[in-house]
Amino acid sequence: MNVTDVSILRRLNEAGSPLDLSALAEDVHMSQGTLTERLAELARCGFQFSYDKSEVELAGLPDLLVPEAIAALLGVERELGTEILVLRETKSTNDYAARLGMGGSRHGTVVFAIRQTEGRGRLGRTWYSSSPEGLWFSLLLRPVEPVARWPRLALAAGLGIARATERLVSRPVSIKWPNDVMIDQRKLAGILLESRVQEDEGFVVLGIGINVNSVVFPEEIAGIATSLKLVKRRTFQMNRVAADMLSGLESAIRLYREDFDALLEECAQRDILIGSHVEIRSGTEIFAGQAMQLGSHGGLVVRSADGKKQEILYGEATLRNHMPVVL
Ligand code: BTN
Predict the structure, then answer these.
(1) Percentage helix, strand, coil, to 5, in the chain?
(2) DSSP of 49-79, one letter per residue?
(3) Does ligand 1 have an atom closer than 6 angstroms to the CB of 295?
(4) Is the pLDDT higher at 118 or at 320?
(5) For the residues 216-244, what does the mean pLDDT come to?
(6) Is 199's pLDDT higher than 80?
(7) Phi and psi dihedrals of 241, rounded to 5?
(8) 233 alpha carbon to ligand 1 midpoint, in Å?
(9) CB 227 near ligand 1, within 6 Å
């Protein structure tokens, strides 16, 4: 990531109007000649600028993800995206980020891929991510909290994506426990948390897949998936969506640290399962009952027919009917 280019782009983006070239050059500590060269190079990477006499304005961002574009749309003081990588193609950004984690890369590093060839979902499923129309990325986190609390980060991620999506589509966005992000009962995004721990140290890789501009899905998921484009009937700018999602994730991760009860409460309010009859497949077991609330460990509290309540920590939940029950 070229930090000088990020400064130029950030100033142009924040101004939102034409800037005087000589003032901009001074601001980013370079000669006007060097600034003109940098702008020409950025234009070759897909950025669009409009010039009028001695002024320049940012007129458009590249269609595909570019680290400098994402960084320029984020604040300087940020926790996530201090390092941003965009890979043309990789098997799975989770695997790539885990390798970075083993190599000592820092907390907040984000790896995006335009395409994944072996994208993975929860519970060993395939995650279709061979097209550049989705956001496929992984965060490398080094939490300071005890390891037992790390799985809660997946709930935080679901909430962060739901909140950011809601701002983008101006429609209610739900969560389906544990962390699917849903619009109109269809899945928009999924989260896969993986961690490596050695003697109470290690890291978390939070993998996130979001359908952004996809309109056609593989047959297996065609009836249950949606995208931002299908919801709003317009194409979304990938770099802007990426930056908005990172901001949403950062504020939800802050909430996870500072007030986990408030995070649970908001997740529960958004959860489509709470108050309904559900069936949960958890490993080889199947639980059926009424989904009552989210438990303190981030699991789903289910009341079975004999009145017994149990917090299920992981699994795949299905609605048995849409009739809300009185809790
Ligand atoms: C799920 O809902 O099953 C979780 C899907 C997680 C998909 C993302 S895409 C980026 C990252 N890399 C992967 O291989 N998986 C996650």
Answers:
(1) 35, 30, 35
(2) EEEETTEEEEEE--SS--HHHHHHHS-SS-S
(3) no
(4) 118
(5) 97
(6) no
(7) -60, -40
(8) 25
(9) no
Q: Find, among 150, 149, 162, 139, the residue nearest to 252 by Cα.
A: 162
What was the pLDDT predicted at 326? Answer: 47
Residues 6+ apart with CB under 8 A from 131: 115, 214
> 85, 117, 127, 140: which to mutate for ligand 1, most atoms within 8 A of CB?
127
- pLDDT reading at 322 higher than 60: no
Annotate 201-217 with DSSP letters as a single string. Answer: EEEEEEEEEEESS----
Q: Is the peptide bond before 178 cis (omega within 30 degrees of 0)?
A: yes
Q: Give the tens place of pLDDT for each residue, 99-157.
A: 999 999 999 999 999 999 999 999 889 999 999 999 999 999 999 999 989 999 999 99
- For ligand 1, say whether the CB of 177 is within 6 Å of any of its atoms: no
Residue 325 has pLDDT above 60, yes or no: no
| Dist. CA 99–CA 105, nearest whole Å | 9
| C-alpha 206 – ligand 1 centre gap (Å) | 9
Which residue of 85, 131, 136 sits with most ligand 1 atoms within 8 Å of its CB, as the best mutation to test the pocket? 136
